[in-house]
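Sample entry was shown:

___
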Amino acid sequence: MTQKLVIAVCTAQRPKMLQSCLESLDNLNQPENTELSIVVVENDPEPHFAGKAADEVKTRLSLPVFFHHERRKGIPFARNTALEAALEHDPDWVALIDDDERAEPDWIEKLLTACTEHNAEVANGPVRRIYEKPAPHWWKSQLLKSRPTGTVITEAPTNNILMSARIVSKDGLGLRFDERLTFGSEDIDFFRRTHAAGAKMIWVDDAFVEEDIPASRVTTGRLLSRMHMAATSGAFNMVLREGRLQSALHFIPKSTRRMVFGLLATVIGFVVRPFARKRGEKLFYYGLIRLMKGSGNLRGLFGRAHNYYDVIDGH
């Protein structure tokens, strides 16, 4: 019996990256008895891939690809439109990948095989990051954390995901991304709720995708802004799930500690830097990151949106 698997990609103003992503999907090893197709959702006031541009892409690819448009600006809006678009094809499985990523040829095979062998409904794999420009020495880059395939997980991002269509179908769990989380953490929240609903989620250690990191994303300003955004969205997420009082009891002491120690580290780093530049800079920026996290937590408690994703990195 043939099963249907739809791969969903959300994109905004990055046609070159999207093209590279789609080409990698077109080169996937097709699992036995599995029918693959792709849906693309453009999150932009005016679609780039419409009419002739969309037809040209479809001509180049051997897999069926379907373009959709979401005018409302915000990642959860685009992701929910992608889920609806995928469900139009009556899939058994839905995969998610970002437009700035490229899949290894055996990506889907590895995720699907792991779900079958471990009786899981969600599989999440690692992202190998390719930096256009090295990050500053003081930045702690996100390193791959190797875990045995089949390890049960309780949350996941959307950058490398395969999930049973039951999770999003109307006659299943019917889950959607929370559209109030327009400035981050919507994917973590979605899969936390998936886990809470009883779906088994696993890690697949050898199902790789590669992500291109443009030089603009590793500037000092963007790195600090990302820390601020993550802390803001994390606190706001807790406000939505547990209420403002419970969130305040958790985050006010935490953010206070972060800001006090962050200020102290920043001052010490500034003083030390003329005598030991590298060590001083590391301490200085460590303090700034803590200040960003502390102030971001407070910002999230009051539900103030962050504009990190208003800036698009890459092309």
